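Before relying on records like the one below, remember that each one covers exactly one chain. Contacts with other chains, cofactors or solvent are not represented anywhere in the record.
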Amino acid sequence: MSGQTESEDVDATLELRQSILWPNLSFADLRLVEDDSGLHFGAFPIAVISLFDEPLPEQHLVVCGNDKLSQRKSARFRKFACDLMHQNRGIGTHLFQHAAEAARSTLGASIIWCDARVSSIAWYKKRGMVELGDPFYKGDVKFIRMKMSLDADTCKTSVYNAI
């Protein structure tokens, strides 16, 4: 990989979304309603991630000092996939960091969140994300909501990161 992260049209992400995440679904089923308003990045043809201006669900909002989390802007990433032959080489980490920076600089978000497959919790924790709430299922795949603060100066307490 050249280390280059590219901005892509959503259609360029569908093949990897299908082959890695949901091999039994059609491209039409993999396309999200919000895809046309999202930002899509890739290290093609190895990894993809999609980013959306989407608030953290209300059940995860708490007050931290004088800062109401509900007043803080959030971005959600979805459909993050890295080809199995290229995992454990830093490509996914690079793409995740690129998406987090885009969430902060382009979308103005101070929190990034996702619905992570339970099998990937350790990977996300290693990169600074924390679990939120209880696990849930999408089809037969178990997920957990996770989040990470993007601004180091706001609410540095561990209570904030343990939301």
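Residues 152-163 have pLDDT under 50 and may be disordered.
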